[in-house]
Every structure is written in structure tokens, then in C-alpha cells.
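User: Hey, quick favor. My workstation is busy. Could you predict this chain's structure for me?
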Amino acid sequence: MSMTRRSFVRGAAYGLAGATLTGAYGDYDSRNPQLEKVELKLKRWKADGLRVGFITDIHVNDMDEMVRAQHAAEMLADCQPDVLLFGGDCVNTRATEGLDNIGKAFRPFQKLKCPKIAVLGNHDYASGVVREVAAALGESNFGLLKNDTVKLGDYSVACYDDQLFGDVDPKFQPREEGTLALLHEPDFVDNTPESVSLQISGHSHGGQICLPFGVPLHTPKGARKYRRGYFPNTRVPLYVSRGVGTVGFKWRMFCPPEVTLLTLRSGG
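Assistant: No problem, here it is.
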């Protein structure tokens, strides 16, 4: 059956309209971060009711990305968390604009008096600007830790350096109960000591481009097994954020940006 000119034009028009709508939706999704409020019951956890703010994967390479991250930071800062954690990946490139945008994106956190703790991600290393990122995080009052633990009252935060490009230290094995593990790539939860109460990660972007109901088309190395949300039955409980920014396409489909407020309860 031959295709008439009219049917060809109609099909092309439908295809163009579909592509346009898809692009518009993907752009809309990427610009509208969501605040996820999640309550978790944890074993070996004494700091009952601790409110953990988590932001990750901001990727603030240009002005639009900075504005999105700043809006997400405002949402999280308004929650007044007891501790603020950053899971890595500030930029994708060496460009000065992106480095300057880090402080702008985190400006809403200046009003917070709580501890602010950060680790690096794979893109921070791959971009070759680790020193500059570390300086920008310091200027935003984040304590950047690599394979080190900080004790904060009834709990501790164990901060792992990036497991793909960073300084991996097999001897870093925090054993104290009541410890949160902050580690960029979620799949490495399989190596986290069982004494840890919860691992918090990003890196996956939740898939970024997903089918309806959030089924990812692709996730990067280090986030192939655990892509988004809460996993209570891994070696230690694991929470994976969808993150704020994008890599590659500046779209998100059925996978909006996320900042997270975790309320941690004893007795899981």
C-alpha cells in the first residue's frame, strides 16, 4: 500500500507535535523540583526524630541549572533540618561559570545553623576541578569529608569518597552504631558495614529519563541495582535520591528533581 502525500504530511505533523509535547513536558519536569518528606524506622538508631536534609547532584553548569538548584535549596532550607547533607556532583565541566554557581545555588542554606556535611561525586572528579569544588563548598559552610567520620551527639556521619574516581579506602569501615553513611553511588551499599543504620546516596538521577510510573531507561555505573527511593532490605537500609540536576539531555521525564527531608525514628 503506497503512502499518499497527504498521509505522509499528516504523519510527519503528528510526529512533530509529539516530539514538541515530549520536549515541553521534559523541560517542565526538569524545572520543578519536589520536596520528598520520608519517615524511616531504623535499627540501632538512638537519635529518634532526627531530621536530615539531603540534596545531591545539583550540576549547576549554567544559569538555568543554578536557578533550579537554588529553588530546590530554598525548599529544603525552609524545613529547618537538624543536619544538612550534600551527596556530591556540583558541576560537569571545568567552566568558571559552573564553579561560581555553586555558592549561588547554596545561598538559601546560609540561614541554617545546623551542621552541613558534603562528599564529592564522580563528575566533580572527572571534571578535574576537585580543589575548586572543595573551595566553593567550604565557602558555603559545608564540611567536606573524605573517608572520615564526624560525630554529632547521639549519631555519626561516615563520609565515603567517590567510589568511581575518588580515593577508595578499603580500611575505612565505620563500626559505631547510630551511623549514617553518606556515599555518592548507591550500589556500593553492598560493601557498607552492617553496623551502619542507613546509607544515603544520589548519583542515579532516578534514571532522569523514565517511562511512565518512573521506570528508568538507563542509570549510570554505580546505580544499576538501586535507582531511586528506599530499600529497607539491602545490606544496610538505603535511601537513593533522584537528585536535582541533569547530565546529557537537560530533560527529565516522569522523574522530577528531588530534595529530601528524612525523619529518622528508632526501632525499625
